[in-house]
Each structure stands twice: as C-alpha cells, then as structure tokens.
Amino acid sequence: MTRPTSEPRRRFVHRLPTRLRQHWKLPALLMVATVALTAAFGQTRIRPYVTGEVTVLAAPITENIAGTVDLFDPGVPHSLIVELTDAEYREMLSAYVRDGAKKWVSADITLDGTVIRDVAVRLKGNSTLMGLRGDGPPGPPGPGGPGKPPMPDEFFKTMMSMAASAEDPTSLPLLISFDENAAGRAYQGLTELSVRPGAPVLNEALALSLTADSGQPTQRYTYATYTLNGQRTTRLLLEHPDDGYANALFDSPGYLYKADAESRLEFAGPDQSAYAHQFTQINAVGSGNLQPIVDFAAWLQHADQDEFDAHLTDWVDVDSLARYLATQNLLVNGDDMGGPGQNYYLWYDLTAKRFSVISWDLNLAMVGDPETAPQDKVELKIPEGAEPPPGADGKRPPLGGNLLKDKFLASTAWAPTYDEKYAQLYRQLFADGHAHARLDGIAARVPLSEGLDEPKLHEAVASMHRWLDARVAALEPAAQR
C-alpha cells in the first residue's frame, strides 16, 4: 500500500518507543539518577530482590476497540488485512536476517471490517523463521539445502509447510500489537494477536480444541482469510497471552511466566537477573518478581528423586502437571515444555504458592508417530548424520529437555497419578469418536482462499482423520484392559 506523502514524518517519530514518546520525563529523570548512582557506587553490584508480595495489576485499557463481530465467534466468517509499506517490510526482514532481531514496524490493519491504523507488527517464532536466514530443517533441495539427509517423518514435512519465505509475505508468522504504538489500546480486550504460519494447520486447531475440552487452560483461536500486501490466503489467528489473559486464567491471583527458548528450568544462582533470558513475566510487569522461579529452580536442581517425590506437592499442582504431560503425550507433541522451543508458560498461584504448567504453541502436535505409547518419550528428532540448524544467535540449540518433566516421568511414586490422568483424558478426548467429531466441526469453518483451495483442505482433513484412526488403534487395546 502506498501511503500519502505526509506519512514519512509520522513514521520516523514512531521509530522511538511509544511509551518513551509519551512519558519522556520519567526516563530522563531515571537516567540522571542512574548516572548519579554509578558515580556513587562505581562497580558495586546491585541485585534485584522482592521483599514482599507485589499486587498483580493489569495494564489499563483506555481504548477498547469493539469491532463488528466477536473475533472468536466460530459461526461467522473472519478476515484480516495487513498493509505494510515496502520500506517497513524490508526493515523488518533485514533486522532479523542481520542479527536475529524481531523488530516492531508500523502497519495498518483491517480486522473483520474494522480499520485500525498504526498497529505494531513483528516477526514471531524460531524454527519457522530459519529459512529467512538461509537455515532450514534438514531435507531435500530447497530450504534445507542440497545434499542433506531426507526428512524421515511427518514433523519435518510439517516444518517445511510452515517455512517462512521473504518472497511470500503471507508465509511470515507475525505478532500484531495493538498497544505498542498506542498505550492503552486493545481490540476486544486483546493487546496482541498471533498470525500462525501454514494452512490449514488443522493439527494445531484440533490440539487447542481438545486441550480446552479437557478443562485445561489454553488459548482462543479463529480462522480468517488473510491478506498481506495484496497476497491472500487462509490463516489461523491465535490469542497471544498478555496480562489480561494472565489475570483471567484462574480465580486466585498469580504470576504468569513465559519460558524462552534458551530456558531449561535450571538453577542459575540466587540473582534474579540471571533468569531474565530464561523467563519473561507476563503480568505485574515491572515488579521484578522472578523470585518464585529462582526458588523453584534451586529446589528442583538440588532435589534427588526421593526429595522430589516427597515434596513435589509443596511446589507444584501435581494433578495439573500430570494432566499437562499426559495431554502432550496423547497429542504426540514433541515440542512441549521439554522440546527445543521450551513452549510452555508457568503459572504461580500466589494463594496456593504452587506452580502449574500452561500449554503453548501446539503447531507440532498430532504430527508425530501415532503409535507413541503413554510411557514413551516424545521428542523431536534430527535425521541421522544431520545437525540441528542454528538458532537466531547462530548457535546450535540443544534438542530439548526439562528437569521438571524428566523427573516427574521418571518417578515411580507419581506414575499412578500420571496413568490415571492419561486414562481419563483418553476416554474424554479420543474414545467414542470425540476427536473425529471435533475435527469435522473445525474443518467446516475453515475459509477457502487463493492459498487454500478445496482439494488441499479436503486432503488435510482426510490426513488428520487417518492420524486419529492410527492413534486410537494404538491406544485402545491398553484402554480396554
């Protein structure tokens, strides 16, 4: 979209963070104070500690855009149009290619007919973006490069279908922020919205639906026709957890933490700042309260199996953990809290003083081996002889692992709890054709577009039904015993 000649000046101003533009006096005062402290204390190390409970507050929403229809109403069609200038598009891509930075740029969008100007947009994801930097999952000629081992399973095929390409703007996974450029602005209570890669990604929509059917916290989603700079396709739009999401999860107050890809839930010492690149606090931002994470990681790291078995309930809602892990196995999701992306959130209940695990990023669920047994370790595997592609920092990431998950599944004391939850969830989600019926309901509301025609959708639905048949065939004999 070509903008009027008066636009560039406004765009230049928006290269400064909005909150800095609106509240420049406070940062200036803090800068002066920082210089004074540096002069006074020199090289003295200051450690951030929280000495008391911090009130959990959501950032105020001062402009809540109502829209025309409920974004997550499955009974009506939805559409999203994103308009980026060529300069903003190139800047977003070049920043990531240059150093892995996911830079916010400005765009105008039209969501279900409602025009919203000057929203912030950036790239989102890790593995799906590798193709932009010349990295890709090992495979045949293409994004993976010639001469690499062929892809051995459905995981790598799925990865290839979601691979981002600079030549196809609609292939880019995006995060849309309504409040980055306008503090206090939201759309139907949402401050952020995720545009997922690939079409029709029935596996992710079905995994989200089944998780919700089980009564576990998850995220809302909707399908929409999606247009970016004139190219049109079908995309899954996903609620992105913000402080409003966090504060509505449970009746009691708590903190929500997102695990970053580098996190392994390992103890890194008593200094909270050492965990800044492992976990991001979603609500009560600015409180500096990572102390629950620090304390839990310290106990988890030093507890032997006997200590773990005896005192896990002091730290974790064990029923919730067992349900989460059983669900991830049922869905054959190798990219969960123990996967390379560390895709999960931790909820710390301030009343119970215990953690729960919240599922996140289920785009690789229900594409693995359907014959995976309840006790099998579900993991993403790299083909023999191939190395994992480097991450955004150029380093080879570990292939996963999570101390909490590993210790729990290795525990004989907690095995009955896991087995009980597994059997309950199987009966609830897979028995009597529940998953098949849920899939058909989802497929019926996927819109067709230039990027998703009816034959492609039909084959995706049939493939998903075949996977479900194989999954039930593998698990039903054990369920009958």
UniProtKB/TrEMBL annotation:
Keyword NAD: no
An example molecular function term from Gene Ontology annotations: kinase activity
UniProt keyword annotations, A-Z: Kinase, Transferase
Start-end of Pro residues biased regions: 137-151
Disordered: region residues: 128-151
Name the UniProt record assigns to this protein: CotH kinase family protein
Native species: [Mycobacterium] wendilense
